[in-house]
């Protein structure tokens, strides 16, 4: 079922990601009988539940995170693949990071279903009930998913007192969020500010691996070719009915400007589509350019310009309304620091 028109879009996580309270988990999950002492091991996601001593993790790991999650929690299932992608990339790059899954599942079968999609460690389910309550109180957990970065001394790192902030950080920045600290967040936000107001199209639209945008027929157009032009960033999706109407209107204005002001204006489509097929369907009706669907720059742009919903047209550079006969067709998100953008 397609989302309703103008559905809110969040750059920090999938559109369906709504917090789930731990209170619900406590109410519905049976409390296990007290045990003499908590385990000093966690288990790896293997069929034989290989135990890993906590002491060995502390000795070899610079950043340890507690991941509070549950299989019954839809937002948790949505966020886990994002976290897994970041974790895998960090480990492949040799970063000293480990995640320990703290299950809020209702039974062991659900715990195992959830755990099989993870490549990190977990508190054994038979100990999770006792430790869950202790850890939830210790870190004031109020909702899931929650990701708490810890130092080796088992205290929240760099002022991150609530794991929800780390979930947002990973959702917004992915692997770049490491080491998930408040200082790293400030650094990343500062970089976003620089991209937004720096007037450099390559930093805004491209990345180290890509210095081009693409046309509907997949031709690569150098970002450098956009220098000196007024550039419109069109945030839309094929599943959004109002976008279909607006695309037709924008196409009329776009074609008029191509005749009246040749070489002065270009539109870049920033897709909010759910699949490459939808993206291609969107592009089939567009005469302008686009950020490749597989590129992380799409998410970066929605974050940098705080795009909360679609459809929207954000103008970089000159005021477009002075060049358009029907400016009422062009609802825009205001650019905080409008200025002509250069290629580099």
TrEMBL record:
- What reaction(s) does this enzyme catalyze? [protein]-dithiol + NADP(+) = [protein]-disulfide + NADPH + H(+); [protein]-dithiol + NAD(+) = [protein]-disulfide + NADH + H(+)
Keyword Oxidoreductase listed? The answer is yes
Q: EC no.?
A: 1.8.1.8
Q: Where is this region: Disordered?
A: 1-45
Q: Which PROSITE patterns match?
A: THIOREDOXIN_2
Assigned keywords, A-Z = NAD, Oxidoreductase, Repeat
Q: Name one GO molecular function term.
A: protein-disulfide reductase [NAD(P)H] activity
What region holds the Thioredoxin domain? 31-197, 203-344
Q: Which Gene3D superfamilies match?
A: Glutaredoxin (3.40.30.10)
InterPro entries tied to this protein: Nucleoredoxin-like, Thioredoxin-like_fold, Thioredoxin-like_sf, Thioredoxin_domain
Q: Which domain of life is it from?
A: Eukaryota
For bias type Low complexity, the affected ranges are 8-24
Going by the record, the broad EC class of this enzyme is: oxidoreductase
What SUPFAM superfamilies does the entry give?
Thioredoxin-like
Q: Which family does it belong to?
A: Belongs to the nucleoredoxin family.
Name of this protein: protein-disulfide reductase
């Amino acid at each position: 079922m397609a989302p309703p028109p103008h559905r809110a879009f969040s750059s920090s996580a999938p559109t369906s990601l709504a917090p789930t309270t731990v209170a619900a988990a406590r109410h519905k999950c049976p409390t296990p009988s007290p045990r003499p002492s908590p385990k000093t091991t966690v288990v790896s996601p293997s069929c034989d539940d290989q135990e890993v001593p906590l002491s060995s993790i502390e000795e070899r790991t610079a950043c340890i995170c507690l991941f509070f999650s549950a299989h019954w929690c839809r937002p948790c299932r949505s966020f886990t693949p994002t976290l897994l992608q970041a974790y895998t990339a960090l480990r492949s790059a040799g970063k000293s990071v480990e995640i320990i899954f703290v299950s809020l599942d209702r039974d062991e079968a659900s715990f195992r279903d959830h755990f099989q999609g993870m490549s990190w460690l977990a508190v054994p389910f038979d100990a999770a009930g006792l430790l869950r309550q202790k850890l939830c109180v210790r870190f004031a957990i109020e909702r899931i998913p929650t990701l708490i970065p810890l130092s080796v001394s088992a205290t929240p790192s760099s002022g991150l007192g609530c794991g929800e902030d780390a979930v947002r950080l990973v959702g917004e920045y992915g692997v770049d969020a490491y080491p998930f600290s408040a200082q790293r967040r400030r650094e990343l936000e500062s970089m976003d500010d620089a991209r937004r107001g720096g007037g450099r199209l390559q930093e805004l639209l491209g990345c180290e691996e890509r210095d081009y945008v693409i046309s509907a027929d997949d031709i690569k157009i150098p970002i450098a070719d956009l220098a000196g032009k007024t550039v419109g960033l069109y945030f839309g999706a094929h599943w959004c009915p109002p976008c279909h109407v607006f695309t037709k209107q924008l196409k009329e204005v776009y074609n008029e400007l191509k005749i009246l002001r040749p070489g002065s204006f270009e539109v870049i489509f920033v897709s909010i589509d759910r699949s490459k097929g939808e993206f291609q369907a969107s592009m089939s009706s567009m005469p302008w350019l686009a950020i490749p669907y597989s590129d992380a720059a799409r998410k970066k742009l929605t974050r940098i310009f705080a795009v909360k919903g679609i459809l929207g047209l954000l103008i970089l550079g000159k005021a477009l309304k002075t060049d358009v006969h029907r400016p009422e067709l062009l609802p825009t998100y205001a650019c905080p620091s409008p200025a002509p953008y250069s290629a580099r």
